Amino acid sequence: MSITEHRIRGDHRGQLVAIEGLQDIPFEVKRVFYIYGTQPDVPRGQHSHHQTRQYLIAVNGSCKVTLDDGKQKVTYDLNKPNIGLLQDALIWGAMHDFTVDCVLLVMASEHYDEADYIRDYDDFLKVVGA
Amino acid sequence: MSITEHRIRGDHRGQLVAIEGLQDIPFEVKRVFYIYGTQPDVPRGQHSHHQTRQYLIAVNGSCKVTLDDGKQKVTYDLNKPNIGLLQDALIWGAMHDFTVDCVLLVMASEHYDEADYIRDYDDFLKVVGA
């Protein structure tokens, strides 16, 4: 779990941020998804993965992400479009406090597989031995 | 060069669009970049690639993309966050008419390599034999 501030390649035309798989983030990107149109009072996520690692960036607007290893919870502010947050496997994640204009970009290390999800918090605590 | 309208996985929490590499798009994603803060009157892109294929989505706001194979130019409106545009290798691309809030997400089939860029339009026409 760590925050990285990525270089902004800005010039008179505007800004550009680039994320190279296996270079800027520690995995190859198998899946990209993005969340938008989220209500400010509605959290998302609230699950963990057995294998999938995720990299989260609020490319527009902002949100907060709380990561939980079963022992400790840490909340991160994704409030700049060049701030990325790594969510490792076996970390419980919740996204919340979305601004109405938030677009949360997620790069994932695995293709979608429902069997990789841990959706029950008590199950999660058992899996991580917490 | 083709437009795809991706499924929006919407519910009471908001919207989610997922792009699986090699499934929803015809390549593995080696690099992800996004362009934002672009002035409405400033075009971007205006180059081609020898090898790199790109998949473009305006995940916030909108812009237009003109693709040019050396014989024909077609302009696409990226005006919904679930519309994706495939830009093949050896296609000249220009992005323009950005709204101030536009975030243009690009998934690329290759890592960054300056040698893969064709930045001169006359060189491009020679390479494609147009």
Task: Describe this entry's structure for a reader.
The structure is a homodimer of 130-residue chains. Chain A is 5% helix and 45% strand. The first copy, chain A, has one helix spanning 121-127; strands spanning 2-5, 15-20, 31-36, 44-49, 54-60, 63-68, 73-78, 83-87, 92-96, 103-108, 117-118. In chain A, strand 6 and strand 7 (73-78) form a beta hairpin. The two termini of chain A are 17 Å apart. Chain A is mainly beta and 130 residues long. The longest helix of chain A has 7 residues, at 121-127. Strand 3 of chain A pairs antiparallel with strand 2 of chain B, so a sheet runs across the interface. Chains A, B: This is WxcM-like domain-containing protein. Chains A, B: Residues 7-128 form the Sugar 3,4-ketoisomerase QdtA cupin domain. Chains A, B: InterPro entries: QdtA_cupin_dom, RmlC-like_jellyroll, RmlC_Cupin_sf.
* Residue-averaged pLDDT of chain A: 96
Total count of helical runs of at least 4 residues of chain A: 1
**Major sheet details of chain A:** 5 strands, antiparallel
CATH class category label of chain A: Mainly Beta
| Low-pLDDT runs of chain A | none
CATH topology of chain A: Jelly Rolls
Secondary structure layout:
The structure is a homodimer of 130-residue chains.
Chain A: E1 2-5, E2 15-20, E3 31-36, E4 44-49, E5 54-60, E6 63-68, E7 73-78, E8 83-87, E9 92-96, E10 103-108, E11 117-118, H1 121-127
Antiparallel strand pairs in A: 1-8, 3-10, 4-9, 4-11, 5-8, 5-10, 6-7, 6-9
InterPro entries (chains A, B): QdtA_cupin_dom, RmlC-like_jellyroll, RmlC_Cupin_sf
Protein name (chains A, B): WxcM-like domain-containing protein
Domain Sugar 3,4-ketoisomerase QdtA cupin (chains A, B): 7-128
